[in-house]
């Protein structure tokens, strides 16, 4: 890989950077596959669970646009996701009490139950992380990955 700021000067990306980027790609796909494997038994996916978590954290005060932004989705993808969650009885759309033009999304009781079941199911992955890393290493990893996510939003 080459990049250049000047036609006469170019620089190659060092091997460690390439390896790091490859590991990050592999890790992202691997984490999603592991989560989907565990959550699939509950008819959920990592994406559906993350949406339920965002909706729950907003406590009924989240719009489709806000959800799309928080999930780093385009609005049409967020709309399709909420449509599926709504048809499965996990969320409902409600009119905003302060602005009739705005629709908010909230969890149904079934959505809350599914989210709690998902949290219980994910303890398998939590246990694996606890076996691989000490509490200090997990805290350091969280800080480093969080910093990268903040610097490189989707």
Radius of gyration: 20 Å
Low-confidence stretches: none
Tell the overall outline.
Answer: globular
Instruction: Give the CATH architecture of the domain at 31-121.
Output: Orthogonal Bundle
Give the strand order, joined by hyphens, for the main sheet: 3-5-4
How far apart are the termini? 22 Å
**Assembly type of the shown chains?**
single chain
Give the class-level CATH name of the domain at 31-121.
Mainly Alpha
Major sheet description: 3 strands, antiparallel
Look at the structure and give the mean pLDDT.
Answer: 90
CATH topology of the domain at 31-121: Arc Repressor Mutant, subunit A
H/I helix tally? 7
CATH superfamily of the domain at 31-121, by name, is Winged helix-like DNA-binding domain superfamily/Winged helix DNA-binding domain
Give the SSE string: EEHHEHHEEHHH
Approximate helicity band? 55-70%
Strand content: 5-15%
User: How would you classify the helix and strand content by structural class?
Assistant: alpha+beta
Task: Describe the 3D structure.
The strands form two sheets. A three-stranded antiparallel beta sheet has the order 3-5-4. The chain has a two-stranded antiparallel sheet with strand order 1-2. α2 packs across α5 and α3 packs across α4. A hairpin with a 2-residue loop joins β1 and β2. 65% of the residues lie in helices and 14% in strands. The protein has a domain of 91 residues: Arc Repressor Mutant, subunit A (Orthogonal Bundle), CATH 1.10.10.10. By secondary structure, it is an alpha+beta fold.
């Amino acid at each position: 890989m080459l990049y250049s700021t000047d036609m006469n000067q170019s620089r190659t990306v060092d091997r460690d950077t390439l390896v790091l980027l490859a590991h990050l790609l592999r890790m992202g796909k691997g984490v999603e596959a592991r989560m989907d494997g565990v959550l699939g038994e509950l008819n959920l996916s990592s994406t559906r669970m993350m949406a339920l978590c965002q909706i729950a954290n907003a406590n009924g005060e989240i719009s489709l646009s806000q959800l799309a932004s928080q999930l780093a989705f385009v609005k049409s993808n967020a709309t399709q996701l909420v449509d599926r969650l709504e048809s499965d009885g996990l969320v409902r759309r409600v009119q905003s009490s302060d602005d009739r033009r705005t629709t908010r999304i909230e969890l149904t009781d079934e959505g809350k139950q599914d989210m709690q079941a998902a949290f219980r199911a994910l303890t398998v992955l939590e246990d694996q992380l606890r076996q691989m890393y000490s509490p200090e290493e997990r805290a350091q990893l969280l800080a480093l990955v969080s910093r990268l996510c903040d610097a490189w939003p989707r």
